[in-house]
Amino acid sequence: MIGISSGYVKLSEFSEGDYAHKDYISSLIKAGAVPLILPIVPGPSVDAYAALCDGFVLSGGCDVNPQFFDQDPTPGCGVFDTERDRAEFQLLQQAMKLGKPVFGICRGLQVINVALGGTLIQDIADEIDHPIQHTQKVSRKEGSHRVRIAKDSRLYQVLGEHEAIVVNSLHHQSVARLGDGLRAAAFAADGVVEAVDITEKGLIGVQWHPESMTAGGSELMLHLFEYFVSLSKEMKQVNAEI
Ligand SMILES: [Mn+2]
Predict the structure, then answer these.
(1) What's CA 238's distance to the chain center, in Å?
(2) Catalytic: 200?
(3) Can you tell me the distance from the alpha carbon of 185 to that of 147, in angstroms, rounded to the nearest whole number?
(4) Which of 1, 12, 38, 124 sits 20 to 30 Å CA-CA off 238?
(5) Ligand 1 centroid from CA 164, angstroms
């Protein structure tokens, strides 16, 4: 059972609530998991979700409040949701305490990085010289830019030992300084960090959206979810034996 963090969305006066994109659900089901969308409610319920699920996907969404990495918002910073930040920090902390894997996707990678003391580039176009396009204009199911994968990373093994792959890209922020214990596992051509891992603690994060590439039929990206689900099963077994 994999919990997916949600984001607040307001569609109309009559329809607002906690939302997770359908591609997270379909990718987890394809990988053999039971997905569960978790509401954003910091407090005791987050601890209960942490105990209930075997692993967690921190999903994409709005920016992280820069106060959490000791900065003020720059002109390029987008909308943030401080309550969601707090709920996800709490969920991550609990998951790590309980030895349960966490897969950070896009914003989720950034949440992991900030929670572990790292900082973010608040707007790539503002802060990086000669950036490539990270907010792609084609369908989210299609890849658009290349990433180079570090050969000594877990990601390299999981994705079948490709030194470079093409990924989709729907972000305008990225890792600046890495959080404690995190390693950069993939880079874009402009130097932007595109993936991180701490293998011994079951944390992985990617800056792209493998759930939408999986929904578009990518077998390669499905491997990421299969790896994460099997790791969650494995750690459930290990935790049961302790
Ligand atoms: Mn990118």
Answers:
(1) 24
(2) no
(3) 10
(4) 38
(5) 13
One-letter identity of residue 81: D
Distances (CA, A) of 211 to 46, 178, 225: 24, 24, 8
pLDDT tens, residue by residue, 185-221:
999 999 999 999 987 789 999 999 999 999 999 999 9
Query: What gap in Å lies between CA 76 and CA 126, rounded to an integer?
Result: 7
Q: Is residue 222 over pLDDT 80?
A: yes
Cα 211 to Cα 134: distance, rounded to the nearest angstrom: 17
Active-site option among 88, 194, 211, 226: 211
Would you call 77 a catalytic residue per the annotation? Answer: no
Q: Which amino acid is at 103?
A: F
- CB neighbours of residue 128 within 10 Å: 16
The CA–CA distances, whole Å, from 61 to 51, 54, 101, 106, 153 equal: 24, 22, 20, 8, 26
3-state class of 177 per DSSP? coil
Query: What domains sit in the chain, N to C, each tagged with a CATH number?
Result: 2-241 (3.40.50.880)
Measure 108 CA to ligand 1 centroid, in angstroms: 14
Please give the distance, rounded to the nearest whole angstrom, from the Cα atom of residue 145 to the centre of ligand 1. Answer: 7
Do residues 239 and 51 make contact, with C-beta atoms less than 8 angstroms apart?
A: no
| Annotation says 209 is catalytic | yes
Global pTM reads: 0.97
* Euclidean distance between CA atoms 127 and 121, whole angstroms: 7
Specify the pairing of strand 55-58 against strand 102-105: parallel
Q: Express each pLDDT in 62-108 by its tens digit.
A: 999 999 999 999 999 999 999 999 999 999 999 999 999 999 999 99
Residue 82 alpha carbon to ligand 1 centre in Å:
24
The arithmetic mean of pLDDT across residues 136-147, rounded, is: 98
